[in-house]
Q: What sequence folds into this?
C-alpha cells in the first residue's frame, strides 16, 4: 500500500460518516455535498472491496454519468495504487449497458427487433429523424424540442419507482414516430441503449444472474444525474439479486432535470428499506460563510460544517442582471 493511500485512509477514518461509508457492508447511499470528500470515499471503497470482498473471476462495476467523471475516477485509483483488474468496469452508464447487457444478451431475446451488430445513429441521423417526425406529425420546434422528446423517452420506462413525472403528450407522439423512423433503418441511439438494457434486466432472470455473477457490487457516482432508466435498473437489482449497491450523489447538485434526471430518484433510493443512508456533513473545501450562503440560496439547512479554512471570511458581491441568462453569461465571462 503506497503512502498516499495510507494518508487518505487515515483521513477518511478520522471522519465518522466517511468511515461509516468506507466500511459499509450492504446497500448504501451516500448523500454528499460539495467538498465532502465523496470521490475519495468512492475510490477507496473500490479498492477495499477488490481486496477484501471480490474474488476472481468476479469484478466490480463503477458507473458514472460522464466520460470525464469516469476518467477522474480511474486517475484517482491509479494514484492510490490500483492495479488493473480484468473483470472490473469503470465507465458511463451507456458504456456499461452496451458492454455488459446489450452485446452479450440482446441476441438472445426478441423484444426490440434489434439489428446486430448494433449500429448507433449519428448526430446527423438523429436530427434527421427528429425533423422527419415533426414534419409527418405536423409539429415544429416551437411545439417540442429534441431535448423534450428525449426526456419523454427516459421518463417513460415502467418499473418499481413511485416518482411521478408528468408526461408531455406532444413530446411522446414525436418520440414514438422518431423511434419508428430510426429503428426502420436498423439504428438505435443512446437513449435506446439504456432503455433496452433496463427492460432486459427487468424481464430476464438469466440476464440478472449473469450480471450478479460478474459484479457482486455496483458503485454509482453522481446518482442524481443518471435518471429513471438507471434508477429502475438499480431497484430491480436490489429487489431481485444479491448485488450490493453503493450510490453517491447530492440532490442539491441535480442539473439535468431537463433530461429527466431529478433528485427525487436519489431521495427515493435513500428511503428504500433495503438501503443504509449516510450523509457526509463535513466540508473540506469552503469556509463556513460560503456554506451558509449556499444553504440560504437552496432554502435548505443541510447542516454542513466547514472543517478547513475556518479563519477565512467570505466576501459577497451582488449584481442585478436585467436580461436574465444572457446578462448573467456576459457578467461571468467579461469580468
A:
Amino acid at each position: 500500500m503506497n503512502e498516499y493511500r495510507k494518508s487518505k485512509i487515515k483521513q477518511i477514518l478520522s471522519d465518522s460518516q466517511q468511515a461509516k461509508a468506507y466500511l459499509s457492508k450492504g446497500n448504501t447511499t451516500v448523500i454528499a455535498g460539495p467538498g465532502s470528500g465523496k470521490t475519495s470515499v468512492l475510490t477507496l471503497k473500490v479498492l477495499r472491496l477488490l481486496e477484501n470482498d471480490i474474488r476472481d473471476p468476479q469484478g466490480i462495476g463503477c458507473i458514472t454519468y460522464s466520460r470525464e467523471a469516469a476518467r477522474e475516477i480511474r486517475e484517482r485509483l491509479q494514484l492510490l495504487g490500483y492495479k488493473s483488474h480484468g473483470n472490473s468496469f469503470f465507465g458511463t452508464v451507456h458504456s456499461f449497458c452496451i458492454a455488459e447487457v446489450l452485446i452479450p444478451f440482446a441476441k438472445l431475446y426478441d423484444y426490440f427487433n434489434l439489428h446486430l451488430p448494433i449500429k448507433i445513429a449519428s448526430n446527423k441521423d438523429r436530427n434527421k429523424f427528429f425533423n422527419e417526425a415533426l414534419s409527418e406529425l405536423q409539429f415544429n420546434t416551437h411545439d417540442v424540442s429534441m431535448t423534450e422528446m428525449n426526456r419523454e423517452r427516459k421518463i417513460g420506462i415502467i418499473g418499481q419507482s413511485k416518482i411521478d413525472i408528468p408526461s408531455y403528450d406532444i413530446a411522446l407522439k414525436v418520440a414514438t414516430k422518431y423511434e419508428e423512423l430510426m429503428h426502420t433503418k436498423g439504428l438505435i441511439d443512446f437513449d435506446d441503449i439504456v432503455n433496452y438494457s433496463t427492460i432486459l434486466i427487468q424481464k430476464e432472470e438469466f440476464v440478472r444472474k449473469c450480471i450478479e455473477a460478474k459484479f457482486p457490487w455496483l458503485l454509482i457516482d453522481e446518482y442524481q444525474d443518471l435518471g429513471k432508466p438507471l434508477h429502475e435498473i438499480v431497484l430491480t437489482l436490489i429487489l431481485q439479486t444479491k448485488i450490493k449497491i453503493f450510490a453517491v450523489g447530492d440532490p442539491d447538485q441535480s442539473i439535468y432535470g431537463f433530461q429527466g434526471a431529478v433528485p427525487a430518484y436519489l431521495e427515493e433510493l435513500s428511503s428504500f428499506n433495503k438501503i443504509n443512508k449516510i450523509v457526509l456533513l463535513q466540508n473540506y473545501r469552503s469556509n463556513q460563510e460560503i456554506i451558509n450562503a449556499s444553504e440560504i440560496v437552496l432554502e435548505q439547512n443541510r447542516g454542513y460544517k466547514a472543517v478547513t479554512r475556518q479563519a477565512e471570511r467570505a466576501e459577497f458581491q451582488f449584481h442585478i442582471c436585467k436580461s436574465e441568462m444572457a446578462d448573467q453569461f456576459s457578467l461571468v465571462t467579461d469580468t
